[in-house]
Amino acid sequence: MEFDRELIVRAQGGDESAQEAIVKHYSPMVFRLISRFFRSREDVEDLAQDVFLKLFARIEQVRPDENFPGWLARVTVNTCYDELRKTRRRKTAMEIYGPQFEPSVAPREPDAFGKARIALQGLDPKLRIPLILKEVEEMSVEEIARTMGLTQTNVKVRLFRARKKLAGILGQP
Amino acid sequence: MNPSLKDFFNEEKKRVFTPDPYFHSRVMARVREGKSKADIWALIPGSTRPVFGFALMLLLAFVAVEIFVPQIPERGFITALLESEQTPAEAFLLSGDDIPADQELLNQLMDAEER
């Protein structure tokens, strides 16, 4: 805590060595969180860079006594949410307006994990993010609420809807 | 939750990317690049940006009108010629002089005449 406080105060004063120390110390956490939502290393790296750029652009807003890892997790999740929404919009636009390809070979039937992955990717980011934070990142409802800036009731509702929708897509009760 | 989904989530826990040793250098390079590109907008507080933008737009519109809209006489050619008082714009347009007399040149001529 004292380590964070000192680094943040120095980074707010424009100390580059403090900023670099923050990147070194927190990049594994940021990478881990982004890895939960994106499967390519390039995407994860690009988004991690964006997260740190956003952090330093808004470093004045960070209160040194605040829970810094929690604040950074919120910035990371918000960045992932924005990117997932953009990707979803692009995908929808391509499906509607993009060229139509007839596959020459019939696509292989995905295995159980493949089906689960496709089903999860089909979920709205609003539902997908809390579900992944709960099931993969093992966060409590309270932590998810804090990270996503939602109420705990809202998180519970989203988790319920996400599970119901997943079960519906996978054809299981 | 069904067993296949549980297994899937357990498998997902193992899938983690870690930063390479040069990641922090790349981030710091982008941070420095961003600082050097900080433009006038970065100096203006966010709340005043719309007002500033609107004022800038009005100013540019005024300059554009002054530069691109040609000066035309307010009255007809004959009326303007017959009137004793002409506006500077009319005098310039109707007198037939190519270039209005330069003040410095005029002063030099007057000096020479006085001498």
Strand residue percentage of chain B: under 5%
Helicity range of the residues of chain B? 55-70%
Largest sheet of chain A: none
Number of folding domains of chain B?
Answer: 2
Report the order of strands and helices of chain A: HHHHHHHH
CATH architecture of the largest domain in chain A: Orthogonal Bundle
CATH class of the largest domain in chain A: Mainly Alpha
Give the helix proportion of chain A (percent range).
over 70%
The CATH topology of the largest domain in chain A corresponds to: Rna Polymerase Sigma Factor, Chain: A
| Terminal Cα span of chain B | 108 Å
Sheet having the most strands of chain B: none
Name the overall outline of chain B: elongated
User: DSSP helix count of chain B?
Assistant: 7
Helix and strand run of chain B: HHHHHHH
Query: How many helices of chain A in DSSP terms?
Result: 8
The average pLDDT value of chain A, as a whole number, equals: 86
Alpha-carbon distance between the two ends of chain A: 45 Å
Fold and architecture overview:
The complex is a heterodimer of chains A (173) and B (115). Chain A has 173 residues and is mainly alpha-helical. Chain A has two domains: 1-100, Rna Polymerase Sigma Factor, Chain: A, CATH 1.10.1740.10; 104-173, Arc Repressor Mutant, subunit A, CATH 1.10.10.10. Helices cover 73% and strands 0% of the residues of chain A. Chain A is globular and about 60 Å long. The mean pLDDT of chain A is 86. The model of chain B has no long low-confidence stretch (mean pLDDT 77). In chain B, 66% of the residues lie in helices and 0% in strands. Chain B is mostly helical. Chain B contains seven helices and no strands. The N and C termini of chain B lie far apart (108 Å). The relative contact order of chain B is 0.04. Chain B folds into two domains: 3-68, no CATH class; 77-114, no CATH class. Classes of the chains: A mainly alpha (173), B mainly alpha (115). Chain A binds chain B through residues 16, 19-20, 23-24, 27-28, 31-32, 34-36, 39, 41, 44-45, 48-49, 52-53, 56-57, 112-113, 115-117, 132, 135-136, 163, 166-167, 170, 172, and chain B through 1-2, 4-5, 7-9, 11-13, 15-19, 23-24, 26-28, 30-32, 34.
